[in-house]
Prior knowledge:
The protein is α+β, with helices and mostly antiparallel strands. Strand 1 and strand 2 (about 45-50) form a beta hairpin. Helix 1 (about 1-15) packs parallel to helix 3. It has helices spanning about 1-15, 20-30, 65-80, and strands at about 35-40, 45-50, 85-90, 100-105.
Amino acid sequence: HTLYMAGKDLGASLDVKTVGEFLKLVVELKIGIPRILESTEDKITVWVDECITCSGLPDIGEKLCHLEGGIIAGALEKILKRPARAVQTKRNSSGFNGCEFEVSLY
């Protein structure tokens, strides 16, 4: 919870005004290589390749990318001006080739 909230504060503090700017900045900061898989009025699914926390780790079956989820939620909340909550649904550390986050918008 602490890493998620720290990430959310960090994401909200980023100097970005659009989702495209945010995705580009994540790559520049070497947090990962994100892309939007799905976007609806109430949900955005974000995939992150080369996630800074778990890329290259063995399959340990645990969710580790709380910081990244917080960064995504905080930035999207700021950009879209709607409360957001990100939940990691797939992860490198559980046999996938990247990390997936489902962001609920309220």
